[in-house]
Amino acid sequence: MLKKDPFGYYFFLKRFLILTLGTLTWFRYRVYNKVDISGMEELEKLSEKGVLFVANHQTYFAETILLYHVFSAHKNGIRNKLPLPWYLLNPKVRLYFVAALETMKAGFIPKLFAYAGSISIKRTWREAGKNINRKVDLKDISNIGTALDFGWVITFPQGTTTPFVPGRRGTAHIIKKYNPVVVPVVVDGFRRAFDKKGLFLKKTNTTLKVTFKEPLQFSENENAEEIIDKIMQAIEQRPIPPAVANL
């Protein structure tokens, strides 16, 4: 009952929060909308730790919460679907997601969700709606490494819900430093179904897509720009060149 993860979070509280938040949100995904999950066979090949999921970002929380559902379902032998949420009785707790510190402090619900597995980092380029230029906090990078040593980590390389913006180099530095297995995830439909925070329904009968792809392969000689470019292409967020877009 009193066992903790490396960040001092009690496992029994994490399980309770995931069960509660998951049960409350299941209807948004499976009753009011539709879920289309593919590629879960890629999860079969993964170890229990050292895996970094890189995904595009459409809302602050909606796709992250759905990934908690998907990974918990997978843990209980369910593939490419979400039945009634009995799988939340045995959730995936060695799971973390990278999020901006200011986002996770903005309200009661984000603070609760943070306990379920947030690695809250300080943005280096933007804070409180203003552009900034701040050095990377090495403790933030170290915390991501700690999470990778313990389980799976979800990150959103673009650091924003705006589509087709360039990925942040911090993701490439994490890959070069910790050498995790990198699994691309493409999500779609969340921007149409939910508000920007992903806490309120905006439209029903929307298909919410989650696609897992094969792990990416990187060579030791690839630099940060090449790594990010490969990730952006895999998560279908590489900007279309103007010449091609105008054809």
TrEMBL record:
Keywords: Acyltransferase, Membrane, Transferase, Transmembrane, Transmembrane helix. SMART domains: PlsC (SM00563). Residues 51-190 form the Phospholipid/glycerol acyltransferase domain. Pathway: Lipid metabolism. It comes from the Bacteria. GO terms for biological process: phosphatidic acid biosynthetic process. GO terms for molecular function: 1-acylglycerol-3-phosphate O-acyltransferase activity. CDD domains: LPLAT_AGPAT-like. The chain crosses the membrane at residues 7-27. This is 1-acyl-sn-glycerol-3-phosphate acyltransferase.
